[in-house]
Amino acid sequence: MILRKEIVAPALFLLIGIVAAIQYGKIAPLIPVLRGTFALDLIPAGWLASLISIVAAIGGYAIGYASDRIGQSRALKVGLLAFAIGNVVGALATAPAFLFLGRFVEGIGYVSLMVSVPSLIVRTTPSRLHRLFLGLWGAVVPAGMMLIMLTAGSLHRHIGWQSIWWASALAFAAMFLLVAARPCGPASDATPPRPAFSIDVPAGVWILAGCFAIYTMQWLSLVTWLPSFYHEGTSSSAGARACVTAMVVGANIIGNLLGTALLYRGVASWVLMSIGAIAMAAACVIVFAIMPSAGWLGLVAFAGSLLGGFIPPSALSEIPLHTHGREKLSAANGIVMQGASIGSLLGPPAAAALYSPAYAWAISGSVLAAASILSLAIIAVLKRRDPRTTSS
User: Which value, to the nearest 10 degrees, does the dihedral of the CA atoms of residues 115, 274, 289, 254 take?
Assistant: First the structure.
C-alpha cells in the first residue's frame, strides 16, 4: 500500500508528459490538412511544426530558471494552463496568425512542463525510485509522438482536426484541476529558495546537454528522412511508410524502457549512453550512406532507434547528480532540454543540406555518424566527473 502511494504522483506526471508529447508531435501528421485549411506554403508549415522546438531551444534555461524561482508546482500549473489556452486559440483559429499564436503559447506550456516535472519527480518520490521514474520520463516524448502519428489521420477523418485541439484543451484543464487539488501530494506551493540568475551551471549539466543534442540530431534525422528512403527505393504506399516510421519511433520507446530497467538494475549510465551513441552512429552510416534493401533499412533503423533509446533515461537520471542542491534543478533540466531542442532543429535540415547528387546521402550519414565520436568523448569526460567517483 505504501508503494502504491509513492507511485501515484509520478504516474500522474508521466501521464501529463505523454499528453504534452502528443501536442509536440500533432502538427507533422496533420500538415497536409492544415496547409489546405489555411493555405500555408510548405516553409511556414514547417515552422509551425518546429515552433515548440524553437521556443525550447531559445528559452529552455530561462523558463527553467523561472520554474526554480516560482516553484516547480506553480510552474507545472502554468504549463497546464498555457497548453489549455494555446489549444483553445488554435481550435478557434480562422487565420494562420492565430494558429501560430496558439502554437507559441503551447510551446511555453511544453517547456514549463518539461523542466518542472523531473524536479517534481525528484521531490515527490523516494530516492531509490528517482532513476526509475526519471528513466520512464525519458520515454514520454516518443510515446506521445507515436500515439499521435498512429491516430491523427483517423481522428481527423472522423471528428476533424479542431476536435483534437478541443480535446487537448479539455485534457489539460482537467489535469490542472487535478494537480491544483493535490490528490497525489505534489510539492507544496510554499515559497521556494530563489536562486540567482547565472550561467554558472555544473559542467556535467552542459555535457549532458551536448550528449542529448547529438542524440536528437541523429535520431530525428533518421525518423524524418526514413519515409523518403522507402519512397525512393520501394513501391510502398504512404500508409506503409508511415507504419514503418511509427515502428521505428516505437522501438525508441522500448529502448527507453529497457534502458530504465537496466539503470534500475545498477548498470552505469555512461555504459548505456556509450552503447546508444555507437548504435546511432552505425544506424546513420547504414541507412544514409549504404542504403540497403527496404527490409534491412527498416531493421537497421529499428535497432538503432531501440539502442539509441538508452540515452534519454541515462542522461535524465544523471541531472540531479550534477546539480548543487535542488534549487537549480529545473534550470539544469532547461539546459539539457535546450540541447535536445537545438539538436532536433539542426539535424533534419543539416542532413538535407549535405545531400549531393554525386554522393546522395552518404555525406549526411558520415557526418551524423562522426558526431557520435564527439558524443563518446564527452561521455568519457562525464564518467571522470561523476560525483560518486570523484568524492570517494
Answer: -60
The CB density around residue 114, as the number of other CB atoms within 10 Å, is 30
| Domains of the chain, each with CATH number or no CATH | 1-180 (1.20.1250.20), 196-392 (1.20.1250.20)
Residues whose CB is less than 8 angstroms from the CB of residue 352 and which lie 6 or more positions away in sequence, other chains included: 225, 364
- pLDDT per position as a tens digit, 195-210: 544 556 677 788 888 9
Give the residue carrying C-alpha cell 530504465: 260
Give whole-number Cα distances, 293 to 224, 275, 298, in Å.
18, 25, 9
Tell whether the model's pLDDT for residue 113 goes beyond 90. Answer: yes
Q: Give the tens place of pLDDT for each residue, 226-253.
A: 766 654 544 455 566 667 778 888 899 9
Q: pTM of the predicted model, to two decimals?
A: 0.80
Angle at 279 between CA 273 and CA 284, to 5 degrees: 125
Q: Which three cell numbers stand for residue 229?
A: 528512403
Cβ neighbors of 3 (< 8 A, separation 6 or more) are none
Q: How far apart are CA 67 and CA 208, in angstroms?
A: 20
Residue 376 reports pLDDT greater than 90: yes
> Rounded CA gap, 292 and 290, in Å?
6
Q: What is the DSSP letter of 182?
A: -
Are the beta carbons of 322 and 204 closer than 8 angstroms?
Answer: yes
Question: Is there a contact between 183 and 58 (Cβ–Cβ < 8 Å)?
Answer: no
* Residue 32: CB atoms within 10 Å: 11
